[in-house]
Design brief:
This protein has 608 residues and is an alpha/beta fold. The protein is built from 18 helices and 10 strands. The strands form 2 sheets. It has a 6-stranded mixed β-sheet with strand order 6-7-8-3-9-10. A 4-stranded antiparallel β-sheet has the order 2-1-4-5, with helices on one face. Helix 3 packs parallel to helix 9, helix 6 packs parallel to helix 9 and helix 13 crosses helix 15.
């Protein structure tokens, strides 16, 4: 039997801190909030006045038939008060709607912006499905919290105070004693059991997020699942969390039933005692029949919302639990932040210099060791090496996705840690090895390099990347949707879109990270010529695996285990007969084997 995690609930966030976090969003519409609160008070005053008028109507009708007169004004007043108690509430809701929806919008935007401000390290470790579900539930929780906390708990408390004052001033003190004793017992019971039940709600949320993460991850890797026939395995993994969710959900529902039954017992006992006291007063002559109706109406009017208050309190606690993880996202610290006095990058010749750079992703895993090199303005510096040697890490550090452990990275002789991230990244364009596209049109994905670019500029960028003709042959041309992560396009087509996007950005510094790795030999040669053209007069960092693509670089750096072990031009490195020359010979042998294979296939075809 597999153990569940119900014994270890997520850490509880301070509920008052959560509520206080929302208050600034309410003050954007101070006038609407004030008007809504005023209408709330007016609605409750009208509601409390209804039983008082009803008492007068009953007393006026409790007369001998010969002196009985229809109390027209009282009946009309009763109807008007009934209408006002509802009308003021509806107007209040309509006025407050903009406050609630604006608060949800602003919090959601703040979370969204904060997620983009977090470091690459956070996003590499995140679970997209769980994060999206946390935000969804959190936004829904804000709506419930604002509406029901302001317009149910506060009005009910106000109504309790008003009723208590009326009963104390008009009747025996025992009426108030019974009411307050019942209230205290009801509230204590609700608080104690609800706090105990929250462990199940938090576990439900936790398992729901994890199950959603599993589902999203599996669906994003649909082809991989199909390749290996692991549909049942994925369903089993998904069901692991759903099983724990089911256990928590059942316990949540059974504990809710127990709470409702206990609350009903307390309310029934209180109402019975009050009715006995009121009936005794009527028999003794100290109270009229109208007084009995008044007390009964107050009981119903008070205990019905009080019973609902128990539900609202539970739901507010659930909403706070739902909001916990969303606000926890806001508490995630930004690893990479602009300095308070950060400046924009001063335009210049776009030189790049690494000075004794050391870097570690983790304390016990150093990636780069005393890395020093310079990319003069307009030059193309290539970096080669085996997988894991630290090649792609260089581009991530240049974009300042991480801060280095020691040393300096300079652009135009300015330490990138002193610059605003926006101005730094605006200067750099990249064609990554693994191109991931937005689930939108091809036009949108190319135009993403410069959203304000004209159609002509987008088309020119596509032509430069040798993809324009391919797009024009599609049924929907540039409006063709590329699918989730660009899966409707081949690897080469995605890479050309990435190249077009980088061209459109018109950056001063270019990074080609295995930019042609997904292309066939013919396309690669065509694209290489185009890349040389757009890289001319630009500072270029080329990260390559195929050495033939960087043979004309101004300088080649050979990386091994995070250190530069060789540097020089292609010819110089071949003459040195070192690590680079060995890599070149191996790749040339591979190319010869491929060519021989193609020739053999063609010869066999001719024989047939």
């Amino acid at each position: 039997m597999r153990a569940t995690r119900l014994e270890k609930p997520p850490v509880n966030r301070n509920d008052w801190k959560t509520i206080c976090t929302l208050l600034p969003y309410l003050w954007e519409y101070k006038g609407r909030v004030a008007l809504a609160l005023m209408l709330l008070v007016m609605a409750k005053l009208a509601s409390v006045a209804v039983p008082l008028v009803l008492k007068e109507i009953v007393d006026a009708l409790d007369q001998p038939r010969d002196v009985l007169v229809l109390p027209v004004l009282l009946v009309i007043g009763y109807g008007v008060l009934r209408l006002c108690s509802t009308l003021f509430g509806e107007i209040r809701d309509a006025i407050f709607a903009k406050v609630t929806q604006r608060a949800i919008r602003r919090v959601s935007i703040r979370v969204f912006e904060h997620l983009h401000a977090l470091s690459l390290r956070f996003h590499l470790e995140r679970q997209t499905g769980g994060v999206s579900r946390d935000i969804e539930r959190g936004a829904r929780g804000i709506s419930f919290l604002l509406n029901f906390m302001l317009f149910n708990i506060l009005p009910t408390l106000l109504e309790i105070v008003l009723v208590a004052v009326i009963l104390l001033s008009k009747y025996d003190i025992w009426f108030s004693v019974i009411i307050f004793t019942t209230l205290i017992a009801y509230i204590a019971l609700t608080l104690i059991i609800t706090e105990w039940r929250m462990i199940f709600r938090r576990t439900m949320n936790d398992m729901d997020s994890k199950a959603n993460t599993r589902a999203i991850d599996s669906l994003l890797n649909y082809e991989t699942v199909k390749y290996f026939g692991n549909e049942s395995w994925e369903a089993k993994r998904y069901d692991e969390h759903m099983q724990e969710w089911e256990i928590a959900a059942v316990r949540n529902q059974t504990s809710l039933s127990a709470l409702n039954a206990s609350q009903s017992a307390v309310i029934a006992l209180g109402m019975t005692l009050l009715m006995l006291l009121a009936a005794d007063g009527v028999i003794k002559g100290s109270m009229t029949l109208g007084d009995l109706v008044l007390v009964n109406a107050f009981m119903l009017q008070l205990y019905m919302p009080l019973h609902f208050l128990g539900f609202v309190y539970r739901e507010i606690k659930h909403s706070l639990a739902d909001m916990e993880k969303m606000f926890a996202l806001l508490n995630e610290s930004e690893e990479i932040k602009d300095k308070p006095n950060a400046i924009n990058l001063i335009p210049g010749d776009a030189t790049v210099r690494f000075e004794e750079v050391n870097f570690s992703y983790e304390a016990n895993r150093q990636i780069l060791f005393d890395l020093s090199f310079e990319i003069p303005a307009g030059h193309n510096i290539a970096v080669v090496g085996h997988s894991g040697s630290g090649k792609s890490t260089i581009s991530r550090l240049l974009f300042r996705f991480y801060d280095i452990s020691s040393g300096r990275i300079l652009v135009n002789n300015q330490d990138i840690r002193d610059l605003t991230q926006q101005s730094l990244r605006a200067t750099i364009g990249i064609v990554p090895q693994d191109t991931v596209l937005f689930n939108d049109s091809i036009y949108y994905n190319i135009a993403y390099g410069s959203p304000n670019a004209s159609c002509e500029e987008v088309f020119e960028a596509a032509k430069s990347a040798h993809i324009h003709e391919f797009i024009e042959n599609l049924p929907d041309k540039y409006e063709t949707t590329v699918g989730e992560r660009g899966l409707k396009l081949s690897g080469g087509e995605k890479q050309r879109v990435a190249i077009a996007r980088a061209i459109l950005k018109k950056p001063e510094i270019l990074i080609f990270d295995e930019a042609t790795s997904a292309l066939d030999s013919k396309s690669e040669k065509a694209i290489q010529e185009e890349l040389k053209r757009i890289a001319s007069n630009r500072t270029t960092l080329t990260i390559a695996h195929r050495l033939s693509t960087i043979s004309d670089a101004n300088q080649i750096l050979v990386l091994d285990k995070g250190s530069i072990i060789e540097r020089g031009t292609h010819q110089q490195l071949l003459i040195a007969r070192g690590f680079y020359a060995h890599m070149w010979e191996l790749q040339q042998q591979e190319e010869q084997s491929k060519l021989q294979f193609v020739d053999d296939m063609e010869d066999n075809s001719d024989l047939k």
